[in-house]
Amino acid sequence: MMTGAGRGAARRRKYGGRTARRSLTLPSVLVRLSRAYLKPYSSSIALIVLLQLVQTLATLYLPSLNADIVDNGVVKGDTGYILALGGGMLAVTLVQIVCAIGAVYYGARTAMAVGRDLRAAVFDRVQSFSAREMGHFGAPSLITRTTNDVQQIQLLVLMAFTLMVSAPIMCVGGILMALEQDVPLSALLLVIVPVLGVIVSLIIWRMRPIFRGVQDKIDTVNRVLREQITGIRVIRAFVRDKHERERFDGANAALMDVSLKAGRLMSLMFPSVMLVVNLSSIAVLWFGGHRIESGEMEIGALTAFLSYLMQILMAVMMATFMFMMVPRAEVCAERVQEVLATDSSVVPPASPVTELRSGGGHLELDGVEFRYPGAEEPVLRDVSLAARPGEITAVIGSTGSGKSTLLGLIPRLFDATAGTVRVGGVDVRELDPVRSSEAIGLVPQKPYLFTGTVASNLRYGRPEASDEELWEALETAQARDFVASMEGGLEAPIAQGGTNVSGGQRQRLAIARALVRKPDIYLFDDSFSALDYATDARLRAALARETGDATVVIVAQRVSTIRDADRIVVLDEGRVVGTGTHTELMAGNETYREIVLSQLTEEEAA
User: The domain containing residue 299 runs over which residues?
Assistant: First the structure.
């Protein structure tokens, strides 16, 4: 027989949930976020509470006026009294409407502002993440947390301002006013209110793990959809349309199933509450009728009592509607707080160094090691190398030898777990990030272009660059001809990710973007792989002229790309196993010879 803990674990597996950490229990997360992001709007919140209070008091006052009209106006046939009190009711109603409109207006403004601030906070935190944190969360999950999760919290804040403030005032005030009308009949409230509370609590308790599953399934759908959109060419090339359609259908169906389960529970809420409301009305009419018949209660008092009962139950229903949203908002708050509570492994220096000691182009790695959290073996171990201005340093090695990881340590995409990386004689962990960015120009292995134009992408690292400088960079990157042939030239549109240009054109535009910046150190991470041999040769010759005074580090798989480098560093399983020129390594390094002879003949390599 399955234990309670076992059933809980099975339920979490079924709905994709994860056990929350004790330090991030959901109510505390909502309270923490509320304190942090509602505090700047305390004056607006005070105004909202005041408007809701006036509106609720006006609403509570109306049934008493109505009862007075019935008992002293209608029953006695006093038209003047009816008109006088009717005018008073209209005035109270007008105050109620004005306050309700004002409360909703300011509540909506404040909720939207909180959502804006929360999205900005998540965005800022994600921008500070290193490659390690990005890999931990994943892009689809971070997108969902920044958009859908924040929207759920924002919606809860809006409902709190428009419903939750007035609901307790209405409930307590309704009970007091009902007691004023008839105390014995008010004993029914001792049964009605607890029954409603138990029903609502049970449904909400069941909804929480299901809503966690909903958010996780949304993450899955986003991930699958993102993969299929970005990998559409691969899917078409391998004719895997049917397989991918089935994969998306599976993720979509899983989201539908858990959403249906949540919907079924939500659908139980209002019928259950309405059943209690209707039974309560019948009970009030039954017992109230007997009290009127015995002369212990007047007709107007019964009418007012019924109105107050409806107001009490409506307040409970309003709170119920709010609480229906709480489980999902709690899950979303935990997911958002998880991002906000995650510190980047790349920590900005406390006292950043702004001036380089030995010129910006001097690069040195001394005993560098990098190990992923929890990994048994490091990716890089005891790596030492130096690169100087006016020289080309190449890094070559088999797939998985750590070449790209080594290059990523220089601009601090992640930090070395041991050893030191120095730029201009300064440890990059102590260097001011802005100064580091100015000194280093990285062309990543997978070049990415942003939505905009050719010019906006080239100016990404140096907005003040002139058109003439852009054309010069394009000339060097062997991209001038195809850009000139595009409609609009520098103003030609570029789609997200650069999907409207070829892979080789993307690489050349990324190289031109780095050239526009004119850094002291150029890092090329296998940036010539999509180019034909002729374009590769012309590009390297042009780069040699353009970057003659800079330090150039090239990671490449193609031997022809790096054979003329001043220094070639050979990596094997994260270690430096050889350093020298092409001729020296061919003569004395077996690892390098194997790589070269796998691509060239002995005669070509000589």
Answer: 25-340
SS3 sequence of 137-159? HCHHHHHHHHHHHHHHHHHHHHH
- Do 136 and 184 lie in one domain? The reply is yes
- Tell me the average pLDDT of the chain: 82
Say yes or no: 313 and 395 in one domain: no
* Nearest CA among 190, 162, 18 for reference residue 101: 162
Cβ pair 359, 520 in contact under 8 A: yes
The pLDDT tens digits for 450-501 are 999 999 999 998 899 999 999 999 999 999 999 999 998 999 999 888 888 8
395 within 8 A of 571, measured Cβ to Cβ: yes
Q: Is the dihedral of CA 222, 224, 230, 232 positive or negative?
A: negative
* Under-50 pLDDT residues of the chain: 1-26
Cβ–Cβ under 8 Å, residues 147 and 332 = no
pLDDT of residue 483: 92
Tell me, what CATH number does 388's domain have?
3.40.50.300
**Model-level pTM?**
0.69
CB 269 within 8 A of CB 297: no
Do 371 and 330 have their domain in common?
no
CA-only gyration radius of the chain, Å: 35
Number of H helices and E strands in the chain, helices first, is 23, 12
Tally the domains of the chain: 2
